[in-house]
UniProtKB/TrEMBL annotation:
This is GntR family transcriptional regulator. It comes from the Bacteria. Residues 4-64 form the Conserved virulence factor B first S1 domain. It comes from Pseudoalteromonas tunicata D2. Transmembrane segments: none annotated. Residues 218-275 form the Conserved virulence factor B-like winged helix domain. Belongs to the CvfB family. InterPro entries: CvfB_fam, CvfB_S1_st, CvfB_WH, NA-bd_OB-fold, WH-like_DNA-bd_sf.
Amino acid sequence: MPSLGKFNSLTITELAPEGAYLDGLELGEVFLPHAEVPADASANSIISVFVYLDSKGVATATTKQPHAQVGDFCLLRVKEINSTGAFVDIGIDKDLLVPFNEQGPKLEQGRSYLIHFYLDKASGRMCGSTKLNKFLDKTPANYIPLQEVDLIIAGKTDLGYKTVVNQSHWGIIYHDQVFRPLFPGQKFKGFVRKIREDNKLDITLEKPGMEKIDSLSQKILDELNKQNGFLALGDKSDPEKIKKLFATSKANYKKAIGGLYKQGLIEIEATHISLK
């Protein structure tokens, strides 16, 4: 069944000078403007399009790739604010409305916010909300320690960075687990460290186990080769310097250079390492 606010594969029923008419099944006829009709399109061919309601409530399609679809969390910029609410840019001709009652705090024009893209049940129209809690899963977090997950940074707190995990649960990356700049809306992979009693997750950004150390070891060797075999970071060096160069903890750095030493590849001193 075709859905508003998402990409759908629809059949072209008619080609006209103004554009193409598509079979939207339960949505009815869907219009695709002429400028976006592929050159090789023909009647009865199937085309992938994003479907939305225009300002008049007409089902309309676009082949453009929006920044987000229904069900997504995404960092979006406010283009305009009027008596209805805030309108944010989703990368197509149609902006996304964030009603005032879905704002917390009040949105400001020109700023970007992490927004959940949803379909309003009453009107059937696409909307956005910054009240993220209501869209996260309230069921128990069914994860195992060290499981890889998808992350979206929601914001910074006193403890660390709040993140949406697998678009379903809240997680936190504590400050001592952060080894690179983070900002709201940023997406990447992470790993579950612990499932807390409040059903929230402790998250780490570093790949656990020897695979992480092996990857780091290669980075260290690459840096040594770039620096003519000498690197002013030993096993007694400042953790912040290690973090700045390799985006990792001092503990992981020491494990990695220890492994390289055992392989006979480097020499280790308190303040530096060097290639053998």
